[in-house]
Specification:
Helices cover about 40% and strands about 20% of the residues. By secondary structure, the chain is of the alpha/beta class. The strands form two sheets. The chain has a five-stranded parallel sheet, sandwiched between helices. β5 and β6 form a beta hairpin. The N and C termini lie far apart (about 40 Å).
Length: about 210
């Protein structure tokens, strides 16, 4: 598998004041990030949260529609946009399979007053935060310990023992990025973690 991250874009103006803001979530697998984000979006519509719509070079699946779940590009189109510096962040997960976030799409969503949510890996999260500075809030969600993370992954019963060990090794590496985020939420108690995250976002949006 090959994987590469976009270079940090330079010289792009920040989002205009009065528009939506950016909220970045990153976490090791099994930390409960997706559960917390989905709770925020379902239970707190007043926050006007909306996922950023990413691009991908893969084919649509099932009922996926262009411009709804993803923007679907050919690998050649994706590479052209990379060369033109149009991506905020991107990765090539393996040959010709790209995923990325267009700067123009973020600005379009923010112009509607949406507070744009990014659910990205730690490197992507750091890139977005560095690019937008105080226009973005970055939150790192983590389990209380690697041992607890192991317990959760085993309880899921969706991975082989070898895959779990790979995930734990990756999680140990990802946790070294936590100090680079604005806030770290330790998900020891889900309800408390949800409330803590909610308060962080409310304070940020004031």
């Amino acid at each position: 598998m090959t994987k590469q991250s976009a270079p940090i874009p330079q010289g792009t103006p920040l989002l205009r004041r009065g528009r939506g803001r950016l909220i970045i979530f990153s976490a090791p697998s099994g930390s409960g990030k997706s559960t917390i984000v989905q709770w925020l979006m379902k239970e707190h519509p007043e926050l006007r949260l909306a996922f950023s719509i990413s691009c991908t070079s893969r084919q649509p699946r099932g009922t996926e529609r262009d411009g709804v779940e993803y923007f679907f590009l050919t690998p050649a189109e994706f590479r052209h946009k990379i060369e033109a510096g149009e991506f905020l962040e991107y990765e090539e997960v393996y040959e010709d399979r790209f995923y990325g976030t267009l700067k123009s799409q973020v600005e379009t969503q923010a112009a509607k007053g949406e507070n744009v949510v990014f659910d990205v890996d730690v490197k992507g999260g750091c890139n977005i935060k560095q690019h937008y500075g105080d226009r973005a809030l970055s939150i790192f969600i983590q389990a209380p310990s690697i041992e607890e993370l192991r317990r959760r992954l085993v309880a899921r019963a969706t991975d082989t023992p070898e895959a779990i060990e790979d995930r734990l090794a990756k999680a140990s590496y990802e946790m070294t990025f936590a100090p680079r985020f604005d806030h770290v939420v330790v998900n020891d108690n889900l309800e408390q973690a949800e409330q803590q995250t909610l308060q962080l976002i409310r304070d940020f949006l004031k």
